């Protein structure tokens, strides 16, 4: 596949729909081939997406000093990620050209799951953007439904028990990053986000019409997803690749914002509950040999190793880095 298909997933929302099986086959084909698809017919309204985009813009419009006050720390990976804060831990030393805001599954500090895994807890919400919590959580819960539809379809396509993924996603470690990419001059080297694979199960993004997301094809070229207005771009991450024994592919992608305009993006990263151990549920494909992943441990490692002076545990499997 040298292009990313657009699939109307509305038949998935009706168990009796005559096109259900056909849609599941199309999703499966995209995920086993290019690892990316665009979806429409999600049931998420344009208004929900527009409100989310406006909220993200308002959050990044806050004064720089406020962002630093609410910046992520080693102990709490929630809040602002100032521009240029992290360099990819690939040794290149070149910082990505974005500022971000990290959010995790919203869980009360008193929830018993916090004692089981300290990565759970309440998010930081900037008080100046009073609608932020309601707007983000409304968008998030709608994407939870879309993610479950896609996970159910993939379980069916892989001949797994229908609730396989649903059970793994009860009190998940799903997280979001709000992102702002200033425009990059045509001759300015570097990336908005350097080429990487996602470490989650699957990612859902409402693409900014200014463009900038690029996806690697199997022959090493880079293509741009074609996503109709109101649609979402979906990609498979390392966890679904592992669960599927290498059938569903986690594909490298990157962002370069040469549009001349500000770019805003808010990827939703579906990650199972902390105690889920992801390992192949089907015999692994030839040549696919990756160790199992404990979600809580892996998530802690992904976040810890974002700090450039932290190095990955020897035992930690890939952390989204592309080894060339
Ligand atoms: O902003 C985008 O479109 C993609 C961001 C991305 O790939 C990521 O955060 O993992
Ligand atoms: Fe990504």
From TrEMBL:
Alphabetic keyword roster:
Ethylene biosynthesis, Iron, Metal-binding, Oxidoreductase
EC number, UniProt record:
1.13.12.19, 1.14.20.7
Q: Which reaction does it catalyse?
A: L-arginine + 2-oxoglutarate + O2 = guanidine + L-glutamate 5-semialdehyde + succinate + CO2; 2-oxoglutarate + O2 + 2 H(+) = ethene + 3 CO2 + H2O
Which BP terms in the Gene Ontology apply to this protein? ethylene biosynthetic process
Single annotated GO MF: metal ion binding
- List the pathway annotation: Alkene biosynthesis; ethylene biosynthesis via 2-oxoglutarate
| Annotated Pfam families | 2OG-FeII_Oxy (PF03171), DIOX_N (PF14226)
Q: Needs which cofactor?
A: Fe(2+)
Domain Fe2OG dioxygenase, residue spans: 171-272
EC class, as a word, reads oxidoreductase
Which family does the record claim for this protein? Answer: Belongs to the iron/ascorbate-dependent oxidoreductase family.
From the Swiss-Prot or TrEMBL record, give the protein name: 2-oxoglutarate-dependent ethylene/succinate-forming enzyme
- Source organism (scientific name): Falsiruegeria mediterranea M17
Gene from which the chain derives: efe_4
């Amino acid at each position: 596949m040298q292009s990313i298909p657009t699939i109307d997933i509305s038949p998935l929302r009706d168990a009796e729909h005559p096109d259900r099986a056909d849609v599941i086959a199309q999703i499966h084909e995209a995920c086993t081939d290019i690892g990316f698809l665009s979806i429409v017919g999600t049931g998420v309204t344009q208004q929900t997406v527009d409100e989310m985009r406006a909220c993200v813009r308002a959050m990044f419009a806050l004064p720089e000093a406020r962002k630093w006050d609410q910046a992520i720390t080693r102990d709490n990976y929630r809040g602002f990620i100032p521009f240029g804060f992290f360099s990819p831990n690939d040794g290149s030393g070149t910082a990505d050209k974005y500022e971000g805001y990290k959010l995790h599954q919203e869980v009360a500090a008193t929830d018993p799951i916090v004692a089981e895994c300290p990565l759970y807890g309440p998010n930081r919400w900037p008080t100046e953007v009073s609608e932020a919590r309601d707007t983000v959580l409304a968008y998030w819960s709608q994407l939870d439904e879309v993610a479950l539809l896609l996970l159910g379809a993939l379980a069916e396509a892989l001949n797994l028990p229908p609730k396989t993924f649903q059970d793994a996603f009860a009190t998940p470690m799903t997280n979001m990053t709000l992102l702002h990419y200033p425009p990059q001059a045509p001759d300015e080297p570097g990336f908005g986000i350097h080429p990487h694979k996602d470490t989650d199960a699957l990612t859902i993004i409402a693409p900014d019409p200014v463009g900038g997301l690029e996806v690697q094809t199997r022959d090493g070229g880079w293509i741009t997803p074609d996503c109709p207005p109101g649609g979402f771009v979906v990609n498979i991450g390392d966890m679904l690749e592992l669960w599927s024994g290498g059938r569903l592919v986690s594909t490298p992608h990157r962002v370069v914002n040469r549009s001349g305009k500000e770019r805003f993006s808010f990827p939703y990263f579906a990650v199972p509950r902390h105690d889920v151990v992801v390992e192949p549920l089907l015999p692994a494909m030839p040549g696919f040999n990756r160790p199992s992943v404990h979600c809580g441990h892996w998530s802690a490692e992904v976040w810890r190793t974002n700090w450039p002076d932290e190095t990955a545990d020897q035992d930690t499997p890939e952390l989204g880095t592309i080894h060339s």
